[in-house]
Amino acid sequence: MNPDLDAVIELVGTLGRERFAPRAAANDRDAVFPFENYRDLRQHGLLALCIPEAHGGMGANFEQYALVAAELGRHDGATALTFNMHSVSMLWSSVLCDDLGLPAEVQQPHEQRRAELYRSVVQDGLLYAQPFSEPSSNLAGTALVFSTIAAPVEGGWVLNGRKHFASLSGAADMYTVTATEVLPGGTGGASFSDTLFLGVPADSPGFSISGSWDPLGMRATVSRTLDLVDVFVPEQRQLMPRGVYAELARRWPHMFMTLCPTYVGVAQAAFDFTVAYLRGEVPGTTGEPRRRSTTKQLAVAEMRVKLDQIWAMFLRAIGEAKVDPSRAAMLRGFSTQYSVMELGNDICRLAIRTCGGGSISRAYPLERYYRDSRCGALMLPWTAEVCLERLGYDSLYERGERADRPIATP
């Protein structure tokens, strides 16, 4: 990775402290997208974090991306979460695809298509979104088929469908959409292998954004609904070759852990604020007698234990992420995802209780950290419930012992 990972994390930390964190409260209050933050990210080349160096990017791999994203989440959860939606389109189409060892006849046209994808970011500064959630798709069932349909036509596909909880709606220049390819006569679309990963420009005829956005947390993600009515997508906007999205989901399952770093960062922020608050380092507070209280000290100790558990699991999981991971590594991935989402919110709960009544004021960020962290357990495809289901099932059954194994990859 070039420049050095530590330098990138330091840059993100500086931008976070000096710019992103001061803007976060207003963006959250008004549920508006952090456009200014993305101007800063673009100016410093960070939109190209996961683009290979050969194409003008920084060349971050999965683990490096996760560490940078966690630092970003420490300063603004909504910016980190939306940065994930942009970055993973670059990450999945580059190093993760390459890890599959695609045949030359598949790899060569993919090289040509993704070169244009990377050029649009590096040279033109385009911002990408990655919506896959749908009101009617069966993401946790026995047959993963997206209800957004891609019908082949000359030169590409025509898309019809709807995506909801689509972060960056109205802010992105391109939306990388998952769709089920259905061939003429209704054939195809019977399995997850028929999933396509296609880039839809925001100005495409038939593409529109609908609905309002007034959620509990992660308000500045602005995740409204995308409607696609007879939207034509040319073949060159295929971000992965046919069948590769499904193969990645099976062979590179940690690809769906990229939401996790945001919530690690939010948990770290809650702990950092609590310590600063009790030490009197937050404007308008004094350190004594708060930090002398044994009750406060014990609460901070409990928070630190939970935070250290999160970081230890997170660092191991992202370090083990690779193509064809072991069964044990896969289980640790689910356990890590669950622990980050649940323990992170618990750290925020303890932070509010420990800092006291004044901390629930919107003048301070703790109430936002709490609301944002609570949303993590709901994030598809690895929701807290899905992680527990997979952990229980895969602990009790070896592969091949039952046919109704729950599926947790969209």
Superfamily (CATH H level) name of the largest domain: Butyryl-CoA Dehydrogenase, subunit A, domain 3
In angstroms, what is the radius of gyration? 21 Å
Number of helices, where a helix is a run of at least 4 consecutive DSSP H or I residues: 11
Overall SS class: alpha/beta
Arithmetic mean of pLDDT:
93
The number of E-state strands comes to: 7
Beta-strand content bin: 5-15%
Roughly how many Å apart are the termini?
Answer: 29 Å
Characterise this structure.
Strands 1, 2, 3, 4, 5, 6 and 7 form a seven-stranded mixed β-sheet that branches. The chain is globular and about 75 Å long. Helix 1 (5-30) packs across helix 3. By secondary structure, it is α/β, with parallel strands linked by helices. The longest helix is centred in the C-terminal third of the chain and has 29 residues, at 327-355. Mean pLDDT is 93; it is low at 139-144. The chain has helices at residues 5-30, 35-43, 62-73, 77-99, 104-122, 244-251, 260-278, 294-320, 327-355, 366-375, 384-396; strands spanning 128-129, 149-153, 156-166, 174-181, 195-201, 207-210, 224-234. The chain has three domains: 5-127, Butyryl-Coa Dehydrogenase, subunit A, domain 1 (Orthogonal Bundle), CATH 1.10.540.10; 149-242, Beta Barrel (Butyryl-CoA Dehydrogenase, subunit A, domain 2); 259-396, Butyryl-CoA Dehydrogenase, subunit A, domain 3 (Up-down Bundle), CATH 1.20.140. The chain contains eleven helices and seven strands. The two termini are 29 Å apart.
